[in-house]
# Entry
Amino acid sequence: MADSFATLKASAAEMAAGSIDIERCRDDFPVLNRQVHGKPLAFLDNAASSQMPEQVMRAHTEYHSRYHANVHRGVHLLSQEATEAMEGSRETLRELVNARSTKEIIFTSGATDAINLVMQSWGRANIREGDEILISTMEHHSNIVPWRMLCDEKGAELKVIPVSDDGVLDMEAYASMITDRTRLVGIVHVSNTLGTINPVAEITRIAHERGVPVLVDGAQAVSHMKVDVQKIDCDFYVTSGHKMYGPTGIGILYGKQEHLEKMPPWRGGGDMILSVSFEEVLYNDLPYKFEAGTPNISGAIGMGKAAEYIMSVGYEAIHKKEQELLRYAVEQLQSIDGLRIIGTAPEKSSVVSFVIDGIHPHDIGTILDLEGVAVRTGHHCTQPLMERLGIVATTRASMAMYNRKEDIDQLVAALHKTIEMFR
Amino acid sequence: MIGMDDKLSQMYQQVLLDHNKTPRNNRVLDPADFQALGYNPLCGDKYKIFLNIDENNVVTDISFVGDGCAISKASASMMTTFVKGRHIDEIDKLFHQFHDMAQGKLDPETDQNDLGRLKIFYGVRNLPARVKCATLCWHTLHAALKGKEKVTTE
# Structure
């Protein structure tokens, strides 16, 4: 039975690291063959959203064309298949981040939604007046605004760990900022603006010495490096599907079971209950307690498929290739007169932010677009970080496993053209 | 799509060579009868517009300060030179025309308009992400005349 989704579940052999050759993975991403304004596309905006391989699209299509049905409800075959595919995906994602159990993997609409879940459920139950929440200067707005909202509601204080001029977290300051009032540390694993990789295991160890739980925002990490939530030992870890070759509108919250069990539900509705009367509601077990309403089933299946894809290429190959691209990009960009790289931490993912004297990043972005080069320009949803670094905006090139040196060459040539035009 | 690059590059060449590098009326006006702050949260572009009008509601002086991309700065610079000496009712009309042109709803070559040299900004209609750069200063001026102190393009 159920051969319709048998193809969704890769065999162990298919998922073995290296079974997809990274040098050929471009062929799996049809969009990379596109022309933009008559030029070949050099897609260097992967930190905003990475492209999807055909394997993910097929899983999505297959769900809709063969077994589209609601999950956890129907006794009919399609519903069973849909449930099995979605729960299979949860297991794949558990494996990806090495959680102890699928009870610790909650599907959300993305990393932002996952942080908001923790804020609304754990935060509102645990934060009181005078408490402190500690985050860093390099947080994305998604890991600032929910905590700002909670602090305003509770009369708590939001404290901020400083970063150095080159974009490194000040670990000494961090250790000294944890006080008896600190209730949570929220830290980005990899900075979306700078590429800085933060020592999240060390950060967690220091917080745990003082009994403070840690939330790690891993939206920019999972596509680049092996994340092991047990090794990090963080209490919460969040990430998004669309930044790891999966669909938009889906993400996960990993939470230690001990926390998730104690946390009150946030959203109420179907699927998160065992029984309902007007007088009393019995809530469902983990992970369903936090998944009210029909979930994003195709998204969840797609995200699982994307995780499979990453594991099939293998983190070792991904790391090697992306670091080579990073070195090449830095070297090439540094040779451009008047260009300054923003964020030069020793431990970086394949992200290069830069500014060019006298040319606003938005003008750079427009000219690059006309040359077929897709980059992100602006404050990258990290306004406080921009302010700290004394800049308004940057141009950011972010590389994924399928990028090539030719993409960097196209970027560099387009930058020369831009500078020429503005001179 | 053919020709779009040329038009855009023409727009860039003309405004960049001139108004971006040496913006006109780039100063604070003190005292000012009207002023407003315009902000585009998407790019961080921020401009303040100041203006004085006489008893006949004619703009006697106008200036701007702030920072942003070449398109927003050149647009602010050209706007100040264009509206000085005009009646505020006329400016209101120009605001709507400019706005429509930037969004591609008004073709400055075929539709009736008074945009003159501001037609160069017709090029932004093909760049949805940049339309707000060109219109920010006009929104700000419009808000200033309406007595609003702050405007955002979002």
Remarks:
- The interface with chain B takes residues 37-38, 359-363, 365-367, 370, 377-379, 383, 386, 392-393, 421-422 of chain A (CB under 8 Å).
- Chain A has two domains: 77-311, 315-422.
